[in-house]
Specification:
Phage holin family protein; 145 residues; transmembrane; transmembrane helix; 2 domains; 73% helix; mainly alpha
């Protein structure tokens, strides 16, 4: 089922309450619990539908970026061959190929060093989420404070 960018997936509405007017507090609390449970389930289903829709769009975009990366790789390969052939007009073709290879080795080494340095700064632990969960747990234990 394809949704346009203006449509929002919706989940079925919960059934209307069917509590008699003389219901006890326990019955009312039970009904509230069921309503909250239904609301949470409905929101989870909505989130799943939205994530599925956005994942499909992201997958197509990533495929296009992959194709662009491959095309860029082919361009780089042919540009390197062009440089080798151009240098081969003024020197032995083997030396021309070696020079281009060494240049690419230097570029690769620099990119590796930069990537490794940046990767060391990545923190995969969601610090803010962990802190928020700890605060929620403290609040649940002591709701009046």
């Amino acid at each position: 089922m394809a949704l346009s960018s203006h449509e929002r997936p919706t989940a079925p509405a919960p059934p209307p309450p069917s509590m008699p007017p003389d219901a006890s507090i326990g019955d009312l609390i039970g009904e509230i619990g069921q309503d909250v449970s239904q609301l949470v389930r409905t929101e989870i289903e909505l989130a799943k539908a939205e994530i599925k829709q956005e994942s499909a769009k992201a997958g197509k975009a990533v495929g296009m970026l992959g194709g662009a990366g491959y095309a860029g790789h082919v361009v780089l390969l042919f540009a390197s061959l062009t440089v080798v052939f151009a240098l081969a007009n003024v020197m032995d073709p083997a030396w021309a190929a070696l020079i281009v290879t060494v240049l690419w080795a230097v570029v690769g080494g620099v990119l590796y060093a930069m990537g490794r340095k940046r990767l060391r700064t990545v923190n995969l632990k969601p610090e803010q989420t962990v802190e928020t969960l700890k605060e929620d747990a403290r609040w649940a234990r002591h709701p009046t404070s």
